[in-house]
Amino acid sequence: MDEITKLEATLHISFRNSALLQQALVHRSYLNENPDFKLLSNERMEYLGDSMLSAVVAEKLYKDYPDFSEGDMTRVRSALVRKETLARIAHHLRLDGYLYLGHGEETSGGRAKQSILADALEAVIGAVFLDQGFDTCRNLILRLYEGEVEKAVEDSLTADFKSQLQEVTQSRYHEIPEYRVISAEGPDHAKEFIVEVIVGGRVIGKGSGSSKREAEKEAAKAALDAGT
Fold first, then answer.
1. What kind of fold does domain 3-146 have according to CATH?
2. Given pLDDT bands bounded at 50, 70 and 90, which one contains residue 1?
3. Catalytic choice (46, 105, 119, 122)
4. CA distances (Å), 225 to each of 161, 167, 177, in order?
5. Which residues pair with 197 in a beta bridge?
6. H helix count then E strand count, the chain
7. Is 135 a catalytic residue?
8. pLDDT tens-digit profile of 49-69?
9. Global confidence as pTM
10. Catalytic choice (50, 105, 216, 218)
11. What fold characterizes domain 157-225?
């Protein structure tokens, strides 16, 4: 099985024109050293994939989170399409092993660079769109982002409650909230954390959750609900 066929199997997509998938993996540094190579770099596909990714993520947020404001959706979408998230997904797909890199980029650790991995994933998405059309491209994106959307939403809500509380306490008390775990009970796979949030030595909220982050969010929410 050649490399492109292996990647097709990983993506669960059989390309009509496998050269499109191959092109998605060509970094411009490779062409600088191999000017007679038959394919172009992945930069134009990256542009296309970026647009497709943004549209599909926006659609999912719009449909799945009807209570979200425009600002909420924008904040979560930004987290999902940033290079750190893209690079993590690309690493999971092992795209680093398929890249065409120039010798200089190779020796400088190019296969591990977040920007190169993120660009390659966007280019692969663009290649799928060109070869298979929108529906297949959309389905691929949703598969790749399974679990990522929910995590980004949770992170956004956690940051939102905690940032709101910090704004309130800084304004009223000139203090930054301190979060303290007061208990963590249960087995590792079903642990419950209880967290207090403290300002000026006074407990202003308490929350529980299956992670410290979740418990901190609930504690901040409780403090806000209490009119701290």
1. Ribonuclease iii, N-terminal Endonuclease Domain; Chain A (1.10.1520)
2. low
3. 122
4. 10, 14, 15
5. 179, 205
6. 11, 3
7. no
8. 999 999 999 999 999 999 888
9. 0.75
10. 50
11. Double Stranded RNA Binding Domain (3.30.160)
